[in-house]
Amino acid sequence: MKRARILLNGELTKVTVNDNLDAVLADGTVIAQADADWQPPCDGKIFVLAINYADHAAELSFKAPDEPLVFLKAPNTLLGHNKNTYRPDNVDYMHYECELVAIIGKTAKNVSRENAMDYIGGYTVGNDYAIRDYLENYYRPNLRVKSRDTCTPVGPYIVDANDVADPHNLTLRTYINGELKQEGSTKDLVFNIPYLVEYLSNIMTLEPGDMIFTGTPEGLADVKPGDEIVTEVEGVGRLVNHIISESDYLKTLG
Amino acid sequence: MRHSRILKDGVATELAIDPNQKQDMTSQQWLPATTGTVFGIALNDKELCASMEQAFNEKPHVNPPKTPVLHIKTANTHIGYGAAIPAPADGTTIYAGPSLGIVIGKQATRVSEENAMDYVAGYTIVNEVSLAEGSFYRPAVKAKCRDGFCPIGPWVVNKEDISDPEKLGINTFINDELVHSTSTDQLVHGLAKIVSYLSSFMTLQEGDLIIAGTPLRTEKLALKAGDTVAIEIDSIGRLENSVVIESNINEAELG
Q1: pTM for the complete prediction?
Q2: Total CB pairs under 8 A between chain A and B
């Protein structure tokens, strides 16, 4: 089963998603994928892993960390499928990060690695944009780099955990305007999903809807206004996003 | 007016309280006074920054912060007046973090410093509990996001009822002994600047809360199981919580 949320007549509405990837309302009405106003598929805490692929660590000239390097985002940053993300004027480097997102399915505290997968409800795709110009060495990566309005597309939908045979063997790909730019596999995660659930649930209580963005492999590139960015995770989904300029974004604020 | 949230017949309920009426604090089950996202401003206290002056210019920081340093207190950390703060069962020391809380009153995107206070509904008291702040280099999820590490309340006071929010005394008591005194005049970045800065890249929503700044966490602010910690802020009130060993809470819940 695939579950999503769309904005329908101003209301956040739960839908299922059919094999054509169209939205299906509870009464069976079908809304074509291109016509649906896709919203982030869930609400919850937003955890993101930095440097959780060894190849990406090398790309950033970092040694992979000894324990998960987790940072948080606020809900302002989330954006649904097929939406616009703005690139601030006068920045040198804004890049995408294609990520498998594991979603907590039931309340979890002090869960062991052995039992951790029982607490995963499903998976979705995340694009964890970063603006490297704003990096500072305080709580790095800081919120100005990572928790910006429009900067975290997620979705289009959640795939039930039961429908993903092996979440640790999925290919991730990012395309800019149709050209393949990033490719990796979740088999190369430094800290895998059970490890992360154990680690986080030892610190705090996790709740249904909490999202764990598991990190991105190597292959980052700059994005510019006008670009179409597609991040996809094999067997999970394909998340489309468009880059617009800051001035075009300001016009939408009214 | 004071605006609280209480648990009434198992349902979260808003309660407006006239400040001239004496309130029996034991008569209610108090919930966190706000429901939105909670942002904290780290390194926003003059004494704390002075203590870091050398470290700011050394690795891993290399340079002093150019912008306010932000963190997030996740929903699992939020608790109300009178609720217990869980201390780690392994005995790791935890520290109180007395601070003024700025409560957002309406959606704020890219607001100027001049207009920022129009977007503030009022103020509350926050105890931004933390493990030792040994490092400011990496996000402090482990130190700051444990369950119950952010008492908020007991109420939000309308901003109109506070004449100068940047001149409020803040006193911290542990087991009724005054252990720490500071004031909102010790903030490095003022309230309008904080609200404006956050809104420059994050849309703030009604009910969001900003923890203005916590002091240097010396041993005076250390808490242990069995303690009662209370933070008083002029013109707002008193936020009081007990400290218990975390495993005891879990067992009680499993009960």
Answers
A1: 0.96
A2: 98
